[in-house]
Amino acid sequence: MKVCELGIGSDSTVEITGLATDSGKVRAGDLFFCLVGTEHDGHMYAADALASGAAAVVTEREIAVDGEQIQVDDTRKALACAASAFYGNPSKRLKMIGVTGTNGKTTTTYIIRSIIEAAGHGCGLIGTNAVEYCGKKSEARLTTPDPIELHAILRDMLDAGVEYVVMEVSAHALHFQKVYGIMYEVAAFTNISRDHLDFFGDMQSYAAAKRGFFDATHARSAVVNIDDAMGGELARTTKIPTVTYGVENPCDVFGIDPVMSAYGLKYVINMSDKVGTVKFNLTGRFNMYNTLCAAAVAMSLGISLGDIIAGIRNVKKIDGRFNIINTAKCSVIIDFAHTDDGIANILRAIREFAPARIITVFGCGGNRDRSKRAVMGKIVSQMSDYCFVTSDNPRFEKPSAIINEIVRGIEEIGGSNYTAIEDRKAAIKSAIAMADKDDIVLIAGKGAERYNDVMGAKQPYNDEQYVMELAGEFGF
């Protein structure tokens, strides 16, 4: 393929056999993109890329290198366009659905996929847990893959006969133009709360990244949570056709009469005056919103109420999302909740059916938003009967320092219902040992993750697997 065929505004006829953004992984014939980030400037590695055999480099400014140089206004947008063209523009022949928001993205995408499949269509899924399509499943490295990987996945999905693709679209992905050039049939918004402020700096910048998804350059239509303040703003301001959903405010798709238990959720759904009963195998008010979002997306796609209800009912389990392990000693719930709003939602849902105490095991990730640590400490202390503060992907920070910041929040409100145990396994074991038959142990923060990120190394570890290892010791 020639550079001029990659849609990046160049008339160069240099032959390209691959795309690259890492100079250390360049192969002969690659087109190397000099990406500008918060920590690295790819222009510094252009000479290395050319020395490794790159056919040309794409830059945002003229640089002194010996080789073909293509200058563009934005190398990230150019990369997204080139990746799409290199793989034959697969997104143009797929019906794309994107879900963004702080919490609920993963669960909502799984529900949407189930609904589309219930309607008789093939649907691929891309998100935090995995990439899945046509019986194939691979581990996800990022919530939203980088453009080269993303368009390669879309190409494979198209070749496998997939019709629809539902994917999580993170704020980082929007900021870094990962999905630039993809036209979504529907862009859906779940909610916004404190997260990623280590990167975005403030809530305004974080919200702005998500807000940019809801315009005619990205999507043909929108689905938004009208009960969320930002969702309400999007409903008022976006220029694309919008379907609203919620519980508390007038909207197009809403739910009433919820009944929640440890065994799931049931409520009456009204979709523009088409009424039915939704049954979902996961409980909690937040899952009512997730199912409503999925239903609104499906309605936007023209899927019938019957297929929507069936698709929601068909979801049996989502790895790492409110996974319940019932044992003879106690019940254990494993969930990915890792923000103050997310963990509050989980604890509120558990309190609705908990017969006795809630004992929570949680921590906060290292090298991420520090402002939420004390806040999460306060929430968990107030909403749990007891809690164990522990390590959760400390990355390059000392686990003890992160724990101290969480504990500071607990102690600010006079809380004393906690024990700090740095080792996550020891904290989980202590929580289960403390629990009685009717107690619920919530293990929050990692969900389906199969690693613990410590000093740049991902050590094999999974919360659910470890709980099962304790079965013999505790007589599960």
Please specify the SSE layout and strand pairing:
Elements: E1 18-20, E2 30-33, H1 46-51, E3 56-59, E4 69-71, H2 75-86, E5 95-100, H3 105-118, E6 123-126, E7 130-133, E8 136-139, H4 147-159, E9 164-168, H5 171-175, E10 186-189, H6 197-200, H7 203-211, E11 222-225, H8 229-237, E12 242-246, E13 253-261, E14 264-271, E15 274-280, H9 285-300, H10 305-314, E16 323-326, E17 331-335, H11 340-351, E18 358-362, H12 371-383, E19 386-389, H13 399-412, E20 418-420, H14 424-434, E21 440-444, E22 451-454, E23 457-460, H15 463-469, H16 471-474
Helix pairs in contact: 2-4, 3-9, 3-10, 9-10, 11-12, 12-13
How many helical stretches? 16
Q: What oligomeric assembly is this protein in?
A: single chain
Enumerate the strands of the largest sheet in spatial order, edge to edge or round the barrel.
8-7-6-9-5-10-11-12-13-14-15
The level of helicity is 25-40%
* Rg, Å, rounded: 23 Å
| Overall average residue pLDDT | 95
Rounded to the nearest angstrom, the distance between the terminal CA atoms is: 59 Å
Structural class of the secondary structure composition?
alpha/beta
Tertiary shape: globular
Number of strands: 23
- Strand content bin: 15-25%
The unreliable regions are: none
Largest sheet: 11 strands, mixed
Q: Summarize this, please?
A:
This protein is an alpha/beta fold. The protein has helices spanning 46-51, 75-86, 105-118, 147-159, 171-175, 197-200, 203-211, 229-237, 285-300, 305-314, 340-351, 371-383, 399-412, 424-434, 463-469, 471-474, and strands spanning 18-20, 30-33, 56-59, 69-71, 95-100, 123-126, 130-133, 136-139, 164-168, 186-189, 222-225, 242-246, 253-261, 264-271, 274-280, 323-326, 331-335, 358-362, 386-389, 418-420, 440-444, 451-454, 457-460. The strands form 4 sheets. It has an 11-stranded mixed β-sheet with strand order 8-7-6-9-5-10-11-12-13-14-15, with helices on both faces.
